[in-house]
Amino acid sequence: GAGPAKTVRALEAAIEQLGQFGIRQSLALTHLAETHHQSGNLDKAESAATRCLALGRQIGFAWAVASAERLLGRIALGLGDTAQALARLERAAKSRDPFFSTEPTRNRPRS
Fold this sequence. Notes:
The chain has helices at about 5-15, 20-40, 40-60, 60-80, 80-95, 100. By secondary structure, it is mainly α.
């Protein structure tokens, strides 16, 4: 199967080729950040997620902004910065990041 290194190379090539297509480039940046995060390379994950966040804001693509905030929150959590993690995850949740739309919600408060 394709290991993380092969996936990273393919995503980096796609990002370069998609430079003029901001929405598609932001999707590839999200996947690149996820791949680096899952591989334990938090510096590269943070770099890709930060690029995705900036691009998403620049082109007005709310999904990219929310996804980047979620990723940056998870990275901050991995680095032990819980305050930053909570702030970013809260922004992602308020932006209706797709990750949070799969989480069950309660109609009543916990007892």
